[in-house]
From TrEMBL:
Residue span, Fumarate reductase/succinate dehydrogenase flavoprotein-like C-terminal domain: 431-513
Function: Catalyzes the oxidation of L-aspartate to iminoaspartate.
UniProt-recorded name of the protein: L-aspartate oxidase
Reactions catalysed according to its record: L-aspartate + O2 = iminosuccinate + H2O2
Any Pfam family matching the protein: FAD_binding_2
EC code(s) of this entry: 1.4.3.16
Cellular localisation: Cytoplasm
Domain FAD-dependent oxidoreductase 2 FAD-binding: start-end pairs: 8-382
Functional pathway: Cofactor biosynthesis; NAD(+) biosynthesis; iminoaspartate from L-aspartate (oxidase route): step 1/1
Keywords: FAD, Flavoprotein, Oxidoreductase, Pyridine nucleotide biosynthesis
Source organism: Halomonas colorata
PANTHER family linked: L-ASPARTATE OXIDASE (PTHR42716), L-ASPARTATE OXIDASE, CHLOROPLASTIC (PTHR42716:SF2)
Length: 534
């Protein structure tokens, strides 16, 4: 093959992937791999909004300060400053593109759009589209990418791995289509925008969460992974064991919602002066403690005191969804529990999204830019998607597209025999066991004993999968997906065991104090191969 399929291959159709596609498509050919379910991932379910310095009463240094405090000593200050300073322009880009943000009805408002406040922020700086910001942004950007003549959408392909040439340059990806046929998508440059790893846990805030597949694909080519142990649990996910995941936005607390325990008492003011608006790691641990001490398996989020008019105005989506599950939030408190929400770690990148692998970039939740440190501050996630996707686009537009070398590896023909019912049942069972193990031992509160048990159980699952995969040439897509999830889970446990302190989202009962000189964690697949955790 003498020429690649496209200039830029983007894998992932959330806010980061869509923004990047639109920002480069006027200059370069783009193939956007966005499976039919891809635009229903984490970006779409982001309710609260996007943090940026927009009001004349706010300032960049204040947003930087709040982010550094929330990150608990592990933020890269340069990355924080880069993100915050480029935030307003990114928001204006969305406004110019037609995203229907909620206007401020006050004729004397200092900024034309309503700004709310969320945990960790000391100012109102969250711009939003009612309580469905992610959906509004994704829908707007998706329609623009569909209409763009220089963007080829591939909604029929599930990516299984990346391609590399003999010089170590990433030159595309391969996967299977809806007819179980292999597809090879070659490119000058490849960008991963595949999301995080919340799918490693049993309870999440997203119905179709990623399980770190893109992170492992990048690691297979030699990319470094960083801070995997910092998995954020959103404090308030709707408690309904029989229903699908649903996030109760942090903006609910930002507008005055109270957390109450089984005795009907608020418990956050006694723990932190910021009360319900303390950073997410603090609130999630406090809720977890109340749950362990109680009998209901959840706490409540109460907004009845706000009044029906205010609730309908600010939270129409949450009001309607809870009503569909027989909860009238104007008359009764909302049962909530923490749930896996966001991966603060991921593939190490610079401010342009470049990884350590030539030709490979990563943007969005999959990337670890240093912005979030040990704990992401509310609504900095979509901001990161926008800022780094736009920065990556600018870098790609400056690169050379004159030379290209074909991949050294091309996938073989797909397997002729599909998985048997028994094999499929085993894969489903093993994924359930993976999620149960992570939820029990690698969750909000951790211990050496629990992490060691998780390491043993995940190793056993990995060996079982290896036995099932023997003789598969090539491996079936379902096995590849589970292999990626298991690999990321094992690396997460190793990172957690190696951190001998409690910091941000990683709280260990064996190491309750903080190390005086914190450092980010770094791992490669070589760490997994040695199976060592010390």
């Amino acid at each position: 093959m003498s020429t690649p399929t496209t200039n830029v291959l983007i894998i992932g159709g959330g806010v980061a992937g869509l923004t990047l596609a639109l920002e480069v498509a006027n200059h370069l050919s783009v193939t956007l791999v966005n499976p039919a379910h891809g635009d229903k991932g984490a970006s779409r379910w982001a309710q609260g909004g996007i943090a940026a310095v927009l009001s004349p009463d706010d300032d960049v240094q204040a947003h930087i300060h709040d982010t550094l405090v929330a990150g608990d000593g592990l933020c890269d200050e340069q990355a924080v400053r880069f993100t915050v300073t480029h935030g307003p322009a990114a928001i204006q880009w969305l406004i110019n593109g037609g995203v229907p943000f909620t206007p401020d009805p006050d004729p004397n408002a200092r900024y034309p759009y309503h700004l709310t406040r969320e945990g960790g922020h000391n100012a109102r700086r969250i711009i939003h589209a009612n309580d469905a910001t992610g959906r509004a942004v994704v829908d707007t950007l998706l329609q623009k990418t569909i209409a763009h003549p220089n963007i080829t959408q591939r909604r029929d392909v599930t990516i299984l791995g990346l391609l590399q040439n003999n010089q170590g340059h990433c030159v595309g990806a391969y996967g299977v289509d809806d007819h179980h046929q292999y597809q090879t998508l070659t490119a000058h440059y490849t960008v991963l925008a595949t999301g995080g790893a919340s799918g490693l846990y049993r309870h999440t805030t997203t119905p179709t969460p990623s399980s770190g597949e893109g992170m492992v694909m990048a690691a297979e080519l030699g990319a470094d992974l960083m801070n995997l142990e910092f998995q954020q649990f959103h404090p308030t996910s709707l408690y309904d064991p029989d229903g699908p995941a649903f996030l109760i936005s942090e903006a609910v607390r930002g507008e005055g919602g109270y957390l109450i325990n089984e005795a009907g008492e608020r418990f956050m003011p006694a723990l932190d002066e910021r009360a319900e608006l303390a950073p997410r790691d603090v609130v999630a641990r406090a809720i977890d403690t109340q749950i362990q001490q109680g009998t209901q398996g959840h706490v409540w989020l109460d907004i009845r005191h706000l009044g029906e008019k205010a609730i309908l105005h600010h939270f129409p989506t949450i009001l309607a969804h809870c009503a569909s599950r027989c909860i009238d939030i104007t008359q009764q408190p909302i049962p909530v529990v923490p749930a896996a929400h966001y991966s603060c770690g991921g593939v190490v990148t610079n401010c342009d999204g470049a990884t350590s692998v030539s030709g490979l970039y990563a943007v969005g939740e999959i990337a670890c830019t240093g912005l979030h440190g040990a704990n992401r501050m509310a609504s900095n996630s979509l901001l990161e998607c926008l800022v780094y996707a736009r920065s990556c686009a600018g870098a790609l537009r400056q690169l050379s597209f004159d030379t290209w070398q074909a991949p050294a590896f091309a996938p073989a023909e797909p397997p002729t025999r599909p998985l048997t019912a028994e094999e499929q049942c085993l894969l489903t069972q093993w994924r359930h066991e993976l999620r149960a193990t992570m939820s029990q031992h690698v969750s909000i509160v951790r211990s050496n004993a629990g992490l060691s048990t998780a390491h043993e159980q995940l190793t056993l699952l990995s060996m079982r999968l290896e036995n099932l995969e023997k003789g598969q040439r090539p491996r079936r897509a379902e096995c590849v997906s589970l292999r990626h999830a298991l690999t990321l889970a094992q690396l997460t446990v190793i990172a957690a065991l190696r951190r001998h302190e409690s910091r941000g989202l990683h709280y260990s009962t064996d190491w309750p104090a903080q190390h005086p000189t914190p450092t980010p964690s770094r791992l490669t697949l070589a760490d997994l191969a040695t199976r060592t955790v010390a």
